[in-house]
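Curious: explain these tokens?
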Amino acid sequence: QVQLVEPGGGLVQPGDFLTLPCVASGFTFSDYSMNWYRQAPGKELEFVAVSGSRESGHSTFYAESVKGRFTISRDNAKRTVYLHMSGLKPEDTAIYYCNRNGFYGQGTQVTVSS
């Protein structure tokens, strides 16, 4: 049974740094691409970043809106994918979801406000 748990999130100030972990279970973690999505209030779900499967060399790709500020990384031994967010802006406020091929975590709220 695929499970994705995102224990991070919280309230931060503009310009702050925050890392979101997503702990996975129920599948061979390194074999799969892992994604981060987000949904801001009143907006549609938006792709944020992907860390590719082992086959792809865990290649990464980012949405233009976060490129240069966010970094995705993974620790296959810990079955965890991370979203490192820096230079946070109020428009980054959203619920952030970890994703694997149709499965989503419960989401974690990130609020950027002074």
Remarks:
- The chain has no helices and eleven strands.
